[in-house]
Design goal:
alpha/beta, Amidase signature (AS) enzymes, two-stranded antiparallel sheet, globular
Length: 489
């Protein structure tokens, strides 16, 4: 084949495997070779599973040779963000506290992909526990942007996004709490889907904020996103927040919707003077391409957008303080060798194992939940969250989807925002409201500024991943931005 194997999409690789143009071993070998040739400059991976992946590839090739029918994900190499539990494989959450943690079981999403025949080739870097928008809060190293290695890959799923952009695996699993799939997908020029809250099981995910966390795919296009979502979505009795709905073949239905008459809402609050002018122009040009396909464009107002960031961080910090309380050096996590008492074990282990940002968010959350402040911060934030959800519900009575930028700017330089946490938090200004409402939202590449990708978000009503994916696929049918790859080799 002329195209390099690591550049294939899931659909292309599946067809090549079915027709025996390539073998699973060749495909996996190509992606692993890509990791070893390039990741020393990118730092996408914490753990590489080359021997395990190749052993699985040989087994699959034997089944294909015996005439067994294979599914869309059979033999497809992928990576997983290192907050996703993998049985017998180190899972660190990007933190020194869990540097040597080896889970005794798989997350539900890993079980689903194992059943589908996908091959895990590694675990990817992230801001520790998902606390960040740049991977600069990883306790191991910073993941670099594949389009410009002086810039961040985004976060917290920055390693997963960079891996997909560079062909170090054909897709990746990420986790999105307030933008952690969409923002790095935007910075790295790939497609990334935040699912509806409850669409995909969270069982076996190291929790950041339990009422916000979602697991979703990072891929090269919307078609591939639909394939992965079809495999990982569904009810899980081990996660009672998962929705009760019949499993859907998103891939089979993704191109069946006619865009004529589909109503696109443009939220005016996302297109203010604070938005980079070039980003504004690129996203609006993308909207015009959908208009040419028959979509109806109208403005909508979402005034509560202005309080999304403080609402999100009040809730997320509160929930992470509760979730990470188990990392005490006794039940879970690094244990100090310097303590002389139980209390000192707690203090010293956490000081040694938790980075500055994790400590900051735990303290903020503990304060917000403390006696005398719970009602003022956490409870009030939950009330505002309900109002935000109702505001979106009203908007979706008028339009079918909402479109806005994923980020107000392109990937920023490493170190540019890390000294100012408040400024870093504002990197999520366009993503957090959709997370608070639990809505399905996808990032799609829609242009470039000085060789740096720009992404747009397409958001739909709760549990309507289908329409979101269909609009994304329709846009990709008339553009080539999703096909552009980094020049690094």
């Amino acid at each position: 084949m002329i195209m390099k194997l690591h550049e294939l999409t899931i659909v292309e690789a599946h067809n090549a495997l079915v027709h025996k143009d390539i073998s699973t071993v060749e495909l996996v070998t190509a992606c692993i070779a890509r990791i070893y040739s390039i990741d020393n400059r990118i730092n996408a991976f914490i753990t590489i599973l080359d021997e395990e992946a190749l052993a699985q590839a040989h087994t699959i090739d034997a089944k294909i040779a015996a005439g067994e029918k294979i599914g869309m994900l059979t033999g497809i190499p992928y990576s997983a963000k290192d907050v996703i539990m993998t049985e017998g494989v180190r899972t660190t959450a990007g933190s020194n506290m869990l540097r040597e943690f080896i889970p005794p079981f798989n997350a539900t999403v890993i079980e689903h992909l194992n059943q589908a025949g996908a091959i895990l080739i590694g675990k990817t870097n992230c801001d520790a526990y998902g606390h960040g928008s740049s991977t600069e809060n990883s306790d191991f190293f910073v993941t670099r942007n594949p389009h410009d290695t002086t810039r961040v890959a985004g976060g917290s799923s920055g390693g997963a996004a960079a891996a997909v952009a560079l062909g170090m695996g054909l897709f990746a699993l990420g986790e999105d709490t307030g933008g952690s799939i969409r923002q790095p997908a935007s910075f790295c020029g790939i497609t990334g889907l935040k699912v509806s809250y409850g669409r995909v099981s969270r069982y076996g995910i190291i929790a950041y904020a339990s009422s916000l966390d979602t697991v979703g795919p990072l891929t090269k296009n919307a078609e591939d996103c639909a394939i992965v979502l079809s495999a990982i979505a569904g009810r899980d009795n081990r996660d009672h927040t998962t929705v009760h709905e019949t499993p859907t073949d998103y891939y089979a239905a993704i191109k069946k919707k006619d865009m004529h008459g589909l109503r696109i809402g443009i939220p005016v609050e996302y297109f203010t003077k604070d938005l980079d002018r070039e980003v504004n122009n690129i996203v609006m040009e993308a909207v015009r391409k959908l208009k040419v396909q028959g979509c109806v464009i109208e403005e909508v107002s979402l005034p509560l957008t202005s309080v999304a960031i403080p609402t999100y961080y009040s809730i997320a910090a509160s929930e992470t303080s509760a979730n990470l309380a188990r990392l005490d050096g006794i039940r879970f996590g690094h244990r100090t060798t310097l303590a002389q008492s139980t209390e000192e074990v707690f203090k010293q282990s956490r000081m040694e194992g938790l980075g500055a940002e994790a400590q900051r968010r735990i303290m903020l959350g503990t304060y917000a939940l403390s006696a005398g402040y719970h009602d003022e911060y956490y409870k009030k934030a939950q009330k505002v969250r309900t109002l935000l959800r109702k505001e979106f519900e009203s908007a979706f009575k008028k339009v079918d989807v909402l479109i806005c930028p994923t980020s107000p700017f392109t990937a920023f330089r490493i170190g540019e925002k890390s000294a100012n946490p408040a400024e870093m938090y504002l990197a999520d200004i366009y993503t957090t409201a959709f997370s608070l409402a639990g809505l399905p939202t996808i990032n799609v590449p829609c242009g470039y500024i000085s060789d740096l990708p720009v992404g747009m978000q397409i958001a739909g009503p709760y549990t309507d991943e289908m329409t979101v994916l269909q609009v994304a696929a329709a846009f990709e049918q008339v553009t080539d931005w999703h096909k552009k790859r980094p020049s690094i080799s």
